[in-house]
Amino acid sequence: MRLSLALLLFASTVHAEEAGHSDGVPILFHFPMRNAVEFSRSRQWSENTFRSTHRQKRIPDMTRPLWVTGFLIVAASTSLLANDWPHWRGPTRNSVSAETGLPASWSAKCLDEDRPMAAPEPEPAAQGGRRRRGGGSVAVPTHPPNCDKFDTENIDWRLPLPAYSGSTPIIWDNLVFLNVATETASGSLELWAVDRRTQDVTWKRPLADGNNMQRKQNMSSPSPVTDGEHVWVMTGVGVLKAFDFEGNEIWSRNISDDYYEFGLNWGYASSPLLQGDALYVQVLHGMKTDEPSYVVKIDKMNGETLWYIERPTTARRESPDSYTTPAWLEYDGKTELVVTGGDAVTGHDPDTGRELWRANVLNPEDDGAYRIVASPTIMGDLIIAPSRVKPMVAIRPGGSGDIGGTHVAWEFDRGPDVPTPVSDGEYIYVVTDRGVAFCLRLTTGEVVYGPKRLPSGTYTSSPILADGKIYVSTEEEGMWTVYRAGPEFEILSSNSFDDGCTPYCLSTVAVSQGQLFIRSSSNLWVVGERRQ
Length: 532
Fold this sequence. Notes:
Elements: E1 2-10, E2 14-15, E3 26-27, E4 30-32, H1 33-39, E5 67-69, E6 71-79, E7 96-97, E8 107-110, E9 127-128, E10 130-133, E11 136-139, E12 150-153, E13 155-160, E14 170-172, E15 175-181, E16 188-195, E17 200-209, E18 213-215, E19 217-218, E20 225-226, E21 230-234, E22 239-244, E23 249-254, H2 255-258, E24 273-275, E25 278-283, E26 294-299, E27 305-310, E28 327-331, E29 334-341, E30 344-348, E31 355-359, E32 377-379, E33 382-385, E34 392-395, E35 401-402, E36 408-412, E37 422-423, E38 427-431, E39 436-441, E40 447-453, E41 464-466, E42 469-473, E43 480-484, E44 491-495, E45 510-512, E46 515-519, E47 523-527
């Protein structure tokens, strides 16, 4: 279903029982109107957009937001926002979906009588393959056990995959895009386009050789991004490619060759940010390099650099490393690119890359091991910037220069390390790596509940919020927990697929047309019935 120019606004609160759902979970969404509107902006290009030469490495008071309670759809020559998942954090880039009637429970049980155990690593030694538990670590196999036959409940279909990945499925109407490693810790990288109607791989395109495993991740971790006509995909080895929906390659380049080789301690994993006619790619590193960190704006249609800026930092040892994805901020008619890492949060002019402001607030004790994984979240008039557990900082926009002492709205000292928080506009939901859940009031940082215990395990994927529920999983067993959004903590279900998480289940769930798309280490699972 497509709209040319439409604004559909349902201002009343909808409850699940009114929509025919048996669990009676209230559907409460509080979308900041500017976040929904900015996503719908048409693809216009100004000839006056700032362009810089392609730089080679050889050349040396918070305003009150306008909340909409209910289901908001804004579309301009795109599909309904609720139908697609075009970015690793969804249609509004904050891991919130306006879809309703989503499944809360499912299961899969392997029926193979001679099911083999998880296989040991047959490939060259990788810088991973050990899972930390408590103060030590245990070896983990890298090849999951195979299972050909499952007894399933509430599962529409599955697609076998050759290896695990940290990337999220990207969905536009009938196509699902996957960044795929052909082997767990070696082999090559490919982009797959899957037709959800036939459950078949429509096309595969090579991206790069040189896949390897760095601690938990391999080089397929960055998620693709799409505008509904084209798809772009980054790899951990630096190759960035663009394709149309027929699989025709539009352009290709290698960011680490064009500028500086990636020097993060555990490999590159940031996903590109797509906004308007440009991609924004950050490379924040320092543990394994003395070269500067940098951010690049790239023309999405021809792959040319529009600007390149270096992003200085005083962070030391591993602390310059950032595995985050940039965020897009709109307020008071202004737009800014927000980048976190290297001990700081910075705001940049999207037209030039010029740094507008900086808050050196993410590593107050100057710890040399403060790399950042969880990405910034924009909700209303606040930038939520996690660090390595503490502090998680809420920053008000609108400043210039050094704003660390003037624009911090609140701090929280029990934030996440890896999972990116999610917010419905009233509350912000935090899941720590150890499976402890908190709910904070967004505007003040006041703790509404927590610590509350989720099922035991390590939590690496980021929670999403949809249909009044929060979905998040463990990395060891792929145990997906669904709990209620709102001020009262209640676990609704815990679900698994019985296909192992070997070596890990890292991917964040995607939502499209009533279905959940969940990537385990050996399958893409599609949960629930599709609604057109």
